[in-house]
Amino acid sequence: MEKNHRQRLIEEGLYEPLTPNDIAERKELLERRARGEKIQDPPIYCVYRADDPWTHIDTSLGKKCQDAELIADHLRGYEAQSLCSRLCIYDKQQPPRTRPWLPPLDMYRISKMDDWDAWEAQHAQLRMEV
Predict the structure, then answer these.
(1) Which of the 8 DSSP states describes residue 4?
(2) 47: left (phi over 0), alpha (psi -120 to 50) or beta
(3) Quick one: DSSP state of residue 54?
(4) In 3D, which of 96, 46, 75, 125 has the Cα closest to residue 56?
């Protein structure tokens, strides 16, 4: 059985998942936010691996992922930026640059968890229809 990207990144030491206590604390923060409390930098972001360097889960660009993979969720903004940058730099499975002077083709992206959930629900629906 082939490992998913998340498992591979954990084994390579590029990603350390949140502990169950951290996740519970972050979910409690989101519940407090939903009740109207102002939370500075809420943990509403996720990092995912795109199926192609030019695609996104956001459909407004017209470049939609077909098979993205969730790597991390319940992240604060700075955590998502840091993880995404680290993965884009150090993951050996990143596509190579076509020319040395061009920027790398980053496979990892950041989205809000609501956007990811909507994308995932839409894809689950499409799989059921097929």
Answers:
(1) P
(2) beta
(3) T
(4) 46
Class of residue 111 by CB neighbours under 10 A (exposed 0-12, middle 13-18, buried 19+): buried
For tokens 């996104």, the residue is 56
Pairwise CA distance, residues 88 & 32, whole Å: 33
Count of CB atoms situated within 10 Å of the CB of 129: 6
**Position of tokens 């083709």?**
105
Give the model confidence (pLDDT) of 42-101 as tens digits: 999 999 999 888 888 876 777 888 889 999 999 999 999 999 999 998 998 887 777 777
Question: How many Å is the Cα radius of gyration of the chain?
Answer: 16
